[in-house]
Amino acid sequence: MYRRHLVFIIVFSLLLSAGALPVKAQCSICTRTAQQLGERPAKALNKGIIYLAVTPLAIFGIIGYRWWKSEQHEHND
Q1: Which residues belong to the signal peptide in this entry (predicted)?
Q2: Cα 68–65–4 angle (5° rounding)?
């Protein structure tokens, strides 16, 4: 039980810290095109891609957490 909590805390902390790391979410073709436009559009495009990726990941995370909690509740009964 304690080990599962520790693993959950570590994974959760890593997910939170991922936002602090520089992330490059563009494919190589998009990167080249954005670089031709300049530095500012390239950064904006990258942030937009990351923003669009966060929503599904958050939804799956919430569903997984609720599923995990319900499984824990069933095992305790």
Answers
A1: 1-25
A2: 60
pTM greater than 0.85:
no
**How many structural domains is the chain composed of?**
1
To the nearest 10 degrees (0 to 180), the angle between helices 28-37 and 39-76 is 140
Token couple for 73? 């509740």
Q: Contact, 54 vs 47, CB < 8 A?
A: no
pLDDT tens digits, 43-75: 888 788 888 888 889 999 999 999 988 888 777
Give CA torsion, residues 31, 34, 39, 41, to 10 deg: -130
d(CA 50, CA 45): 9
Q: With respect to residue 73, please indicate whether it lies within any of the assigned structural domains.
A: yes
Residue 18 vs residues 1, 10, 22: alpha-carbon distances, Å? 26, 12, 8
Domain span at residue 54 reads: 47-77
